[in-house]
Amino acid sequence: MSGKPGSAPVSLMTPVxxxxxxxxxxxxxxxxxxxxxxxxxxxxxxxxxxKIDDLAxxxxxESTASRPLDEQAARKVREEAERYGIEVxxxxxxxxxxxxxxxxxxxxxxxxxxxHFGHIxxxxxxxxxxxxxxxxxxxxxxxxxxxxxALHMHRSVEIFVALDxxxxxxxxxxxxxxxxxxxxxxxxxxxxVCHSYKNxxxxxxxxxxxxxxxxxxxxxxxNVVAEARQNGAECDxxxxxxxxxxxxxxxxxxxxxxxxxxxxxxxxxxxxxxxHRFAERRVFECQMGDGAADGPAPFxxxxxxxxxxxxxxxxxxxxxxDLLLVVLDGCVLVKTGQNRSVASAGKLDxxxxxxxxxxxGEVFVHNPxxxxxxxxxxxxxxxxxxxxxxxxx
Length: 393
Fold this sequence. Notes:
Elements: H1 21-84, E1 87-89, E2 97-98, E3 112-117, E4 136-143, E5 152-153, E6 158-162, E7 167-171, E8 177-181, E9 186-189, E10 195-199, E11 206-213, E12 219-220, H2 224-230, E13 275-276, E14 284-287, E15 299-307, E16 312-314, E17 322-329, E18 332-336, E19 341-345, E20 350-353, E21 363-366, E22 373-381
Antiparallel strand pairs: 1-20, 2-3, 3-4, 4-11, 5-12, 6-9, 6-11, 7-8, 7-10, 9-13, 14-15, 15-22, 16-21, 17-20, 17-22, 18-19, 18-21
């Protein structure tokens, strides 16, 4: 637009809108506001960082100050547990032995073994978890799906506990009879019966617990020794492994050839009385009528116990009786009569509570968790019977 003729042109742009117009102005206004907000945010972040640093320094100082007390308390608990003879074998910390038993050389019998008490049959050199024997041999076996052990027999009863998963227990010279154990069921196989176990889960390795009272003696079914040798086992004719070179004592008397022993026959339903189902909670009791020169006859008893959240129960106290607690699910605290905790145990941990633990009074188990805890209690009076052949009377 023009003004009067001969005059200079008039601009519609005001002085404040120069250099880009209104859009430029708005940008400058918003940028200034954003800078102020960023400054305030930075200040708050700096303030928060200072507070975090102060809390960290305070926490570190408190932790450092309390550490000697915590270590002292822990040491006191350990000393008291040792005084009572209470030991914990932690599942996560026990060594797992590969190829420690003759039949593990056979591909379908591959598994890992953890030894708690006594000896592993056919391998008397593996160290046990607990410091003192209790009159029986005890292992956990982690078995891949479809695997198991080879047919064999003992001169003592053998107890199998399904710690998790489903298991087939077979018996007969060809394993022609069988029964299935579900989690926490167990079976007590009579002495001299040819038997085996197998993990029948399709996808997962599972744990089975074995208890062999008395002497660790075994005879393998015919052809087992030969098959193990074909797969690399170095053993004598009875199946005792020789690769663990330094024997501390002779292996004589720990095994025998299959042809030299009398095998006991059992029919397809003859094992039923020896199967104990968790759902039924039937206590297992077995007492020897002979074998003890002096004092009461040795015995073994097994039962389940469930402990409600924040509840406790007193362990049975009988003269001359040792206890073993296996945590099937949950966790427990073992406490003395003075309500002092001397041990803790989680799933699949085992707690040895020997005779001397009861000399000062009651010992009880407390469940500190918000869920039910289930334990398997094994009571035995056979500490001096490590060389006894324990049979069902």
